[in-house]
Amino acid sequence: MLINILGPDGSGKTTQIERLIAWSRDELGIPARSLAKRDIFDTERFPECDFFGCSYETLAHRLLPQMIGECRALWLIYMNAVLVRRQPAEAGEIVFLDGYWHKHYATEAAFGLPAAWLLDVCRFFPEPDLTLVVDIDPRAVVERGHRHRPYESGCDFACADSSFIQHQDKVRGHILDLAVRHGYETIDADRPEEAIFDDICQRVRAATERDDGLGAMLPRARRTPPERQKP
């Protein structure tokens, strides 16, 4: 099962995914792992990426913001494609995706690339079984003291708060548009981490119960009880 945790930068996606992996194993009894762009720097798992010649941090924070338009978008799409083609989800496991292609579609559309072109290029990606949008206003992210990076600040190497907010407003708009068009559930991320986590877990559990293979793996005592019909 593929589950995408989607949201703008600073929404807490990575933190929630780390907790979800442990929760899926311990609470649901289902093996779980994550896939994120930095993983392809592990050349034992992704031998075709041995040519990079730099660290993930150098690529993401110094080189990527210097790439231009379609070149940058195609590079990001390539990174996501390597992940899901080299290590696809196996039967009987959950793979959590950190934004997946949807996040970079939204970011590159925010930079002004044609949305229709981006969607066409990304059409080959397998659709997740569940996509959850963790939504937050970038102003709230700034108030939390988020450390901005150039790419998420509209390629502003000064990483000014105003640049971050301006760019992330656009990214958020494209993400919410995807959510409306595809029926993705949206979760308010401007709340305590535990409340967000509980909401995500509830939806992940429901998704696994609907899946014939994973549902059979759930301990009976941990399954969500059916709602009683009113007399």
Automatic annotation (TrEMBL):
Segments for region (Disordered): 212-231
GO MF annotation: an example: ATP binding
Keywords: ATP-binding, Nucleotide-binding
A Gene Ontology BP annotation from the UniProt entry: dTDP biosynthetic process
Domain of life: Bacteria
Record's GO cellular component terms: cytoplasm
InterPro entries xref list: P-loop_NTPase
Protein known as: Thymidylate kinase
